[in-house]
Every structure is written in structure tokens, then in C-alpha cells.
Amino acid sequence: MTDAGTIQVLIPTPLRQYTGGEAKVTASGDTVAVVLEDLHTRFPGIGDRIREDDGEIRRFVNVFVNGQNVRRLQGAATPVKGGDEVGIIPAMAGGQ
Amino acid sequence: MTSDPLVISPAIRDEIVAYARDHAPRECCGVIAGQDGAATQPHRLTNLEPGVSRYLCDDEEFFRVYWEIENRGESLLAVYHSHPVTVAWPSKTDVEFAFWPEAVYLICSLQVPEDPVFRGFRIVDGEISEVELG
After folding, report:
1. Which strand (E) or helix (H) includes residue A49?
2. Nearest Cα to B45, choosing from A70, A94, A15?
3. Which residue in B has a C-alpha nearest to residue A68's C-alpha?
4. Is the model's pTM score more than 0.90?
5. Tell me, what CATH number does A66's domain have?
6. What are the residue ranges spanned by the domains of chain B?
7. Contact B114/B85 with Cβ under 8 angstroms?
8. CB A84 within 8 Å of CB A64
9. Chain B residue closest to A86 (CA)?
10. Which residues in chain B touch residue A13, judged by CB atoms under 8 angstroms apart?
11. Which CATH class is domain B10-129?
């Protein structure tokens, strides 16, 4: 039996409208994709701000597992386990 | 959405100008922590864009700094970047990439090098509104 465990998810201010203002919530899953789907099920709409239609992370959103950007790991397929911390943060970018 | 002024001390402004001058002709970028509309601490971030007309804050650095600010009970009040040769007004790119409606977008213009100009804006759904700086 696989216990996916509980993952802590860090929610940045621009996405707290979906979590009732909560900065830290919990979710379950064994990959980032499953955790994001669980999050979206519990907080409808939040997943659309994070994922493309194909489930990959949107270009100007970064998702971290224990402080490491999943783009440098396995993207949405990056494995997670109970006790891990998943952080989401929109990019900070612009130009003159 | 509040339109309260953002209070930034001369010391914090000087710190940002120093970073902007160090980085010219490239843009510098960073964030400002604070509480109740008063800036308390600027944080320099690395601009990953190699060119002279864009900025992209280092994502892991930004993530770490953002949660340091949150975990000490403060907020990300503002994000700043420099315009080394243009006016302190949000560019089309600034508006397109404004993903932080709660933050003030602070621009430090070095168009007149000896006279840096700061202006602050909220950018929400593509709409720009100026924020008074105190």
C-alpha cells in the first residue's frame, strides 16, 4: 500500500484568493501534478493559474519542491513524498 | 485594492540607486519588504536576463526571499527595477508580466544619471495606476 503522505503547499499572495487567504495549505499526491490536481479539487480555479492545459507548469509560474524549481527536475512529473514542501510563485519579470 | 501611499526612506532609495548604477546599462531588480505601507528592507535579486532592456528575477532567489519576508511577518510591498535610459513609467513588458497585483511596481529611472527618479504603480489586469511615494 502506498501512502502518498501529506505535502505542505506554500501559497503566494496573488493566489490566496483561492485558499481563503491561507498562506500554507496541505495536499496529497506522489508527484507535483497529482498534488496540483488535489489542490485544484479543494480550491477550485487555483490549478488554472498554475498549469497549462497539458498539465505542465505555466511559463511564468514557478513551482518548487523543497526549494528546487521543478523545471530543473522533472517538471510536473517530479516525485514528492510526505513531508515535502511544494511552493508556488509567479515569476517577477518586466522590462523597459 | 488600496491606493495608499508607499513610504520609502531615503536610505532605501539610495540603496536601490546604488544597485541600479552598478548594473547599468542592464536593469537591476529586487523586492521591498514592509508593513502597513512602510518599506522596511530592500532585497537585491539577480537579473537573469542577459540583455539591457528586460529583467527576470532569479526564481530560486526570489522564492527564498519571498518566504523569508512572509515568515518574519512582513509583506512583499513592492518590486523594483531600474530603467537605465528611459523614463520611470511601466513599459508594455512591465504591464504584460505584472503578476503581482498586490505589490507596488517601483521603477527607478536613471535617464538623467545624476538625478534618479522613482515612481510607483499598481498594475492590475493591464491597468496602470500611480501610487504616491512618501
Report:
1. helix A46-50
2. A94
3. B60
4. yes
5. 3.10.20.30
6. 10-129
7. no
8. no
9. B63
10. 75-76, 100, 102
11. alpha beta
In chain B, pLDDT over 90 holds for what percent of residues? 93
Residue type, B41: Q
Residue B19 is given by DSSP the state H
| Cβ neighbour number for residue B130 with a 10 Å cutoff | 13
Question: What was the pLDDT predicted at B89?
Answer: 95
pLDDT band at B3 (very low <50, low <70, confident <90, very high): low
Task: Quote the number of domains for chain A.
Answer: 1
> What burial class does residue A12 get, using C-beta atoms within 10 Å of its C-beta: 0-12 exposed, 13-18 middle, 19+ buried?
buried
Q: Which residues of A touch B57 (CB under 8 A)?
A: 91-93
Copy the grid coordinates of residue B77.
510591498
Check residues B83 and B1 and name the one with the higher pLDDT: B83
Cβ-in-10-Å burial (0-12, 13-18, 19+) of B34 comes to buried
Domain housing A86: 6-90
The residue with cell 507535483 is A32
| pLDDT tens, per residue, chain A with 96 residues | 344 579 999 999 999 999 999 999 999 999 999 999 999 999 999 999 999 999 999 999 999 999 999 999 999 999 999 999 999 999 999 976
The answer, yes or no, to whether residue B107 has pLDDT greater than 50, is yes
| Closest chain A residue to B85, measured at CA | A96
Rounded to whole angstroms, the Cα distance separating B71 from A86 reads: 16
- Among the partner residues A67, A69, A94, nearest to B94 by beta-carbon distance: A94
Burial A57-84 (b: 16+ CB within 10 A, else e): beeebbbbbeeebbeeeebbebebeeeb
The count of C-alpha atoms lying within 13 angstroms of the C-alpha of B131, restricted to the half-sphere facing its C-beta, is 29
